[in-house]
């Protein structure tokens, strides 16, 4: 029996019928709706907003949240498969869904009041309200504790001053989940578009995630009512808890990007004739293709086990760090190697490899750089914090 070239260990057989159905649905959406337009969207530096309604209709926003809040009630493995298939199309599409689901809907669900959940989550699941996550600051990067954005209590309101940087969905967003220093530690606020003193400025001239909106956020005495403060968490554990949710999905996403690149390189190598034979007939090409398949297989098994641990309530943040580190590195190396196998053709966005390689430069950096995740694992092994 021939093995599937992108699933050498038959990971598919380890999925439930529901998980397989979720994967098939999102794969079909990616094939039919994303892939035909994403190259042009990347070239134009345009996020394809026309896909938002369909993404929401498929139940991909807040897919793991309870149905009473508009979510799909899916398990973590299903969410991972959603991320994998979306990023097989483009990292920007997966980033949009990750931010909306894990970084915006999740904190409202986990840290908000019942009134806040009912107010925001159903509309967010339906794509009527788009969110962004305001944590990273211009000078902060990997050190979120060095936060300069502040919120001070003023009567029944809060007044926020500061700035956030590299915010996905920023100029698309109707609300921003903003983290700020207060006299009582770091807290979170839902800042609404149109509030006086709140502005978003889109970041241009990007060479990565071009089919995604990335922005700076500015807060100049923005007055936010107490009703918009998420009351059920204080300190860094709040934003870090959100990032753990998002990083879990990111361990799956790059698998999709890597599969897209391998698929392209494999087909190209069979069709490209050099020195009277297909490129795929060369040992050097086969060694490289085989190594890509090996790495993808390892990444698939890592993320599947991580998902099973998450669904069992046993997932540790260090395990997420290990998988994000491994799978992002795997994918970016594969994308670069596939670009090389395509030769000159590989530098154009008519092919997927260069687009995925450029996107993955962001994916390997955001929500914890590779170095940060290496140090997280090192701390786990040694018991010594080397940050």
Automatic annotation (TrEMBL):
Organism of this sequence: Lysobacter arseniciresistens ZS79
Cofactor(s) for this UniProt protein: FAD
Enzyme class at the top of the EC tree: oxidoreductase
PANTHER family for this protein: GLUTARYL-COA DEHYDROGENASE, MITOCHONDRIAL
Protein name: glutaryl-CoA dehydrogenase (ETF)
Lineage: Bacteria, Pseudomonadati, Pseudomonadota, Gammaproteobacteria, Lysobacterales
UniProt record similarity statement: Belongs to the acyl-CoA dehydrogenase family.
Keywords: FAD, Flavoprotein, Oxidoreductase, Transit peptide
Domain Acyl-CoA dehydrogenase/oxidase C-terminal: 235-381
One Pfam family hit: Acyl-CoA_dh_1
